[in-house]
Design a protein that fits this description.
The chain is of the alpha+beta class. The chain has one domain: Alpha-Beta Plaits (2-Layer Sandwich). It has two helices and four strands, in the order E-H-E-E-H-E.
Length: 91
């Protein structure tokens, strides 16, 4: 079963570059195990201080509350601004 975690982060516009650098470091350290096959970050085309991180999973066990990896990212990212987190299952 494929599923995705979406983490949205809203930061102060002045902090965008420091968050971008920290996010690049965090993503490079993520261990792709347990079904995690891809991690991507996107920046909003209109609101430069909004970004999302998508964790792509291909695993039989969906974590409805989020994976340990996703929850760990939120723990770090919430120091930069407002976060939201959701899990979506592919049909």
């Amino acid at each position: 079963m494929k599923w995705i975690e979406i983490i949205k982060l809203q930061v102060a516009d002045s902090d965008r570059e420091s968050v971008k650098n920290e996010l690049s470091k965090l993503i490079s350290k993520i261990d792709h195990k347990g079904g995690l096959y891809n991690v991507k970050a996107y920046y909003n085309a209109l609101v430069s201080s909004d970004l999302i991180i998508n964790l792509y999973w291909e695993d039989g066990k969906v974590e409805p509350q989020g994976s340990a990896t996703g929850l760990g990212l939120i723990y770090v990212l919430k120091t930069f601004g407002l976060t939201s987190h959701s899990v979506w299952i592919e049909q």
